[in-house]
Amino acid sequence: MKHLLSTRDLDRDTAVRILDTAEDMAATQQREVKKLPTLRGKTVVNLFLEDSTRTRISFEAAAKRLSADVINFAAKGSSVSKGESLQDTAQTLEAIGADGIVLRHWASGGPAVLARSGWIASSVVNAGDGTHEHPTQALLDAFTLRRRLHGEASRGRDLDGVSVLIVGDILHSRVARSNVWLLTTLGARVTLVGPPTLLPHGIADWPVTALHDLDAAIADTDPDAVMMLRVQRERMNEAFFPSAREYSAGWGLTVARFAALPERTVVMHPGPMNRGFEISSAAADSPRSTVLEQVANGVSVRMAALYLTLAGGAE
Amino acid sequence: MTAYLITGAALADGRTVDLVLDGGIVAEVGTGLSRAGATRIDADGLLALPGLVDLHTHLREPGGEGSETVLTGSRAAAAGGYTAVSAMANTSPVADTASVVEQVQALGEAAGYVTVRPIGAVTKGLGGEQLADIGAMARSRARVRMFSDDGFCVADPLLMRRALEYIRGFGGVLAQHAQEPRLTIGAQLNEGPTSAELGLAGWPAVAEEAIIARDVLLAQHTGARLHVCHLSTAGSVELVRWAKSRGIAVTAEVTPHHLLLTDRLAEGYDARYKVNPPLRSDADVEAVRAGLADGTIDVVATDHAPHPADSKTAEWSEAANGMVGLESALSVVHEAMVETGLLDWAGVERVMSAAPARIGGISGHGEAIAAGSSPEIVLYDPSARSDFAAEHLAGRSRNSPYLGRRLPGRVVAVFHEGRPTVLDGAVTPQEALRA
Q1: Mean pLDDT of chain A, nearest integer
Q2: What's residue A315's pLDDT?
Q3: Domain A12-134+295-310 falls in which CATH fold?
Q4: Quick one: average pLDDT of A13-27?
Q5: Whether A108 and B197 lie within 8 Å, measured CB to CB
Q6: Can you list the pairs that A195-199 forms with residues at least 24 positions away whose Cβ atoms lie under 8 Å?
Q7: What is the mean pLDDT of residues A113-141?
Q8: Which of A31-35, A125-129, A307-311, B160-164 has the lowest mean pLDDT?
């Protein structure tokens, strides 16, 4: 695997292989010495053209545990903010010796443009691009869900028949898009829930069900997992919804709604959370919340992504 | 001035004739013609059409000479079989005063490849707030008759009404870029399945259609002439069809790319396919083809929009809108309309020469080839087929969506004012043009 750009183009076997590799990585993290020599001598650049401390430090930890040298390059205060093109930035980083570029880009398709440009020979890992995809987030979500469902017996398994609700601002969410493709490829039944203004126009052909009533969706789909998306409060100023309170009442995982969930349903959130808005603390802090597991698993999944793209990976 | 004897050319009506170009006119049309001293051009197997006329060309000069100049754009036009182009007003400075339109007109005359007719801005600086110097441009040496803020929509309904009325007083036409700005904030791609998957902000069809609906009603109310630029959706075709059935003075154009390409080409984020209005769906392509065939859409206009390479290799949302189109237009119409049986060559002559000349008020162009007509002629080989390549581009920019695509036909020769601007498929050097 030369690049990891989207989950849209992952087939089931490749997706399971990435998750299984992440299981191997997670196993090494139980040892006293967590560091592996796998990427010794390789240089990974975290090129973050949009702020995201959480994703950046997760990739940084992953690369370091594989013994790669890590260079962090953020947009602010750099020549990028002065209008340098992606081509010039990437070629500069490669001239410095980058073997892999982990790219967070504010523009949808930025990593795809870089990967097929011919400007560089480096591998490209998409760390989130605009409102397009965030493939490592979806992979860590699938990894977390698979572990919750199958525990130690997770290897080789997919998510066949698992019911997942994804709730909130689907329109602007790269996490939602990556999860739609990955979870359905793995056999899950995915239901998107949000106000009509925050569901994209043109998703009739997506392999999902789209609903507007969260309570009805919970009742009808008997979800194994409810994934709450981060919603920017400022969206109400663009008339996507009338007020934070109305959003919360309709699509937030409130205390009452959390209490109404089936016992086995896990609660997921990619973070950072808006407590009291899209998710109540009762839900976020409950034993059924996977929020911190998702963060921990993120390192294992990103180790797998870097290993498979940079070390060539075992076929 | 050299006389030309063109032998064995097929006219759009199917007749095969010889043509003599001499004395600044088509001097003779017939069979078995001869002309002492004339240069003979064997047009056996070639179509002879009146020179093509473009109502929508971005020549970029003044201000955008890195992408195109009046001279390089004129060469691109000639290479594509054009003998007249209308230069859009979104230059820098904007063509909103008599001096700018006269400059563009003069540059066109100096280049000598095609008739360059400047389009004047509707509003100062394309700002959409205050009328440009419409009367001064109309009365200038450039005699501007078409006005457009293309690139921007004249969105304010009151200003649009006044502009239609004011331009009517000069016998002109307002060419509207129909795009409701509030419905297209940050818009990147046709709103539909592809934009949803790619996470690119949608440019909904309704943003075009809402403006066209409003504008045809304003045209009806004011009695003014409205021309709809680069119509791109099935709903827009319906609206124009309805307006024409009511006798409203509206005309419309479609671009070659909206006749052939769809938004699915954006899947790899290749910004060569980024254009405004955006590429639409298969159903829209089918509808604009049908609209062009039945006369609802009057003309094909290129919206030739040159850009430097780096502005098209960038991230999609950073990349510039637009594609060059002059050199490929006739081949694209050939594929989309003629090979599909929707138009015959007489229809192509109508939508690419006669109708645009009439709408733009471009005299000496768009005349059916006959004894006494203007010597504006393109010779086209409809049996040729080739991979469209950079060598087919004669302007300054390379942002064609057709590079590497197989297209039918080939422009063999073009005559403008009786002189060859293209011979054997090669654009005449400017020194030879002046000789």
Answers
A1: 94
A2: 41
A3: Rossmann fold (3.40.50)
A4: 97
A5: no
A6: A195/A240, A195/A241, A195/A247, A195/A250, A195/A251, A197/A171, A197/A239, A197/A240, A197/A241, A198/A168, A198/A169, A198/A170, A198/A171, A198/A172, A198/A231, A198/A235, A198/A240, A198/A241, A199/A170, A199/A171
A7: 96
A8: A31-35
What are the residue ranges of CATH 2.30.40.10 in chain B?
Answer: 4-48+372-434
- In chain B, list all ranges with CATH 3.20.20.140: 51-360
How far are the Cα atoms of A159, A175, B200, B301 from residue A86, in angstroms, in the given order? 37, 23, 19, 34
Percentage with pLDDT > 70 across chain B: 100
Residue A147's SS3 state is helix
B196 min Cα distance to partner chain A (Å): 6
| CATH of range A135-291; options 3.40.50.1370, 3.40.50.300, 3.30.1490.100, 3.40.50.2300 | 3.40.50.1370
Distance from the Cα of A108 to chain B's closest Cα (Å) equals: 6
Q: Which of B96, B133, B149, B303 is catalytic?
A: B303
pLDDT of residue A312: 73
ipTM attached to this prediction: 0.94
Residues 6+ apart with CB under 8 A from B330: B52, B80, B81, B348, B352, B378, B380, B409, B411
User: Taking 90 as the threshold, does the pLDDT of residue A20 lie above it?
Assistant: yes
All structural domains of chain A with their residue ranges = 12-134+295-310, 135-291
Amino acid code (one letter) for B254: V
pLDDT number for residue A76:
67
pLDDT for position B221: 98
**How much is the pTM?**
0.95
Which residues on chain B are in Cβ contact (under 8 Å) with A200?
195-196, 202
Q: For residue B134, how many C-alpha atoms fall within 13 Å in the half-sphere facing its CB?
A: 24
**Which residues in chain B are closer than 8 Å to A202, comparing Cβ atoms?**
191-197, 202
Query: Which band of pLDDT confidence, cut at 50, 70 and 90, is reported for residue B410?
Result: very high
For residue B165, what is the DSSP state?
H
CA A20 – CA A150 distance, rounded (Å): 13
What tens digit of pLDDT does each residue of B170-200 get?
A: 999 999 999 999 999 999 999 999 999 999 9
Which residue of B lies nearest to A203 if distances are taken between CA atoms? B193
Chain A residues touching residue B269 (CB < 8 angstroms): 108-109, 112-113
Looking at chain A, the whole-number percentage of residues with pLDDT higher than 90 is: 90
Percent helix, strand and coil across chain B, each rounded to 5? 35, 25, 45
Q: Do A130 and B313 touch (CB under 8 A)?
A: no
pLDDT at A82 over 80: no
Q: Which residue type does A252 have?
A: G
Nearest to B361 by CA among B57, B144, B165: B144
- B4-48+372-434 fold: Urease, subunit C; domain 1 (2.30.40)
Exposed/middle/buried for residue B180 (C-beta within 10 Å: 0-12, 13-18, 19+): middle
Kindly report, residue by residue over B9-32, the tens digit of the pLDDT.
999 999 999 999 999 999 999 999
Residue A286: exposure state from Cβ atoms within 10 A (0-12, 13-18, ≥19) = middle
Q: What is the pLDDT of residue A235?
A: 85
Domains A12-134+295-310 and A135-291 share a fold: yes
Question: Cβ–Cβ of B315/A174 closer than 8 Å?
Answer: no
Strand partners, B420: B415
Residue with tokens 């009786």: B418
Find how far residue A72's CA is from the centre of its chain: 20
Q: Which CATH number does B51-360 carry?
A: 3.20.20.140
Question: Which tens digit of pLDDT belongs to each residue from B38-94?
Answer: 999 999 999 999 999 999 999 999 999 999 999 999 999 999 999 999 999 999 999
